[in-house]
Structures are given as C-alpha cells and as structure tokens.
Amino acid sequence: MNLTKQDRAARTRQKLIEAAAIVFDRRGYEATTLSEIATAAGTTKGAIYFHFRNKDDLAQIILAEQQQTEELALRPQPVKLQELVDSGMVFAERLRTDPLVRASVRLSLDQQATGIDRGGVFRAWRDANLAILQEAQERGELRCHVDLLATAELFVGTFAGLQQMSQLLSDYDDLPDRVTVLLTHLMPSIAVPPVLGVLDMCAQRGAHLIAAAKPGGGGDSVVVEPAAAQG
Q: What keywords appear on the UniProt entry (predicted)?
C-alpha cells in the first residue's frame, strides 16, 4: 500500500469513527446499525468491515476516546490537586464540544450496550484520580482524614450524575458550571487551606486548557503557581 492509499485509509477510518460517534450519541448502542453509520460517513458497510470487526469494535474505540482527548489537554501542575480539578474541567468542556466524547459517555451509560466493556472507562478514571490523590497526599496537599479510594470514586460517580442531568436540561451547556459547583463543595473537605487557596476551579478553565494545548496556544498561562498565591 503506497503512502497515498495509507492516507486515504486513515481518513476513511477516522470518518467512520466520527460518523459512528454521531449515530451512537443520537440513537444509542442497541438501535444503531452499521448501515446507518455507513450512510452518515458517506461510505459502505464494506468499508466498515475493512477497518473494524463489528459494531462492538467501533464502540470500544469510541469509549477509548474519553481518556485520550483529556490527556491531550492536561498538563502537570505544581499543585497536584489542580490536576484533579483540570481532569474534570477538560472532560466537561469536551462533552460540550466533542461528538466523540459525547458518544463515549452515552455508550458508557447505556445499559443495553452489553457487548462492550462499559466499566473500563469508570475504572480508568477512578485509577487516574487515585494516582493524583496519592501524590497529593505525599506532597502534604490533603487533609489527614481523606480516604483516597473513596474520594476518587466519589468524583467519578458524582460527575457521571451531573453530566446526565446537564445533558437532559441543557445539552451539556451548563456542565462546566455544574462541575465548578461540585469542586467548590468537594475540595474544601479534602484540601489543606494553603492548597485550597490556589486552586483554579473556574468554569472556563477547561476551555482555556484545551486552547492552550493547541499549537501556539500559550500553555504556560494555565499553570497554577502555588507560591504566588500563598505568599
């Protein structure tokens, strides 16, 4: 296969993933057919089978987007708890703007999607949160009573409920604001006062992080420097 054909195949594959995301988000897993995906992508079912084994394969790939798109925008922060905040704010913004992420959430919460590992997304986010909290504890950022695993799971579970509510009431438009409310209630119960005082939990932070991650986006502007705020 020459380079031109490779490029064409890669573009077709991505087009199919994006079309599948739109259809999954609109119709749900069970009601979605490969014919609908092919029509939405402007191609054939044969093209789908060239790139993917079946509908489950497509759905699993879309579920993986939930993690990958967040990781692109997240940066290490001097205050470790800021990274926990940022993961929620970036996810909230992606849900507002990215069809792939919207579809991944629809699939992860779809009880009829029995052919895919829906729990993997929740476990991965819980584990990522737990790793952040463990390092935050080592740095002395957490109150002494904090149960790390319970807190990691609470954040994931509460966010899942908030996003469903936001989807129903505003099609995700108010999700960043809802996540800010969640964080302003959660963080005082786990963060020591000096750290709490420097956390940026504004609803616009997710959009700023995503913009900063793009070429020429000026990523330094979204790094929280604790010394300046604590001084």
A: DNA-binding, Transcription, Transcription regulation
Q: How far apart are CA 183 and CA 138, in angstroms?
A: 21
Q: 58-85, pLDDT tens digit by residue?
A: 988 888 766 665 565 688 999 999 999 9
Residues 145-165 as b or e (16 or more Cβ within 10 Å = b):
eeebeebbbbbbebbbebbee
CB 190 within 8 A of CB 142: yes
Residues 6+ apart with CB under 8 A from 209: 73, 74, 75, 86, 89, 90, 93, 222
Spatial separation of the C-alpha atoms in residues 171 and 98, rounded to whole Å: 12
Of 12, 10, 48, 51, the closest CA to residue 32 belongs to 48
Taking only the tens place, the pLDDT of each residue in 172-209 is 999 999 999 999 999 999 999 999 999 999 999 999 99
Distance CA 192, CA 88 (A): 20
Q: How many residues does the chain have?
A: 231
Q: How far is it, in rounded angstroms, from Cα 185 to Cα 180?
A: 9
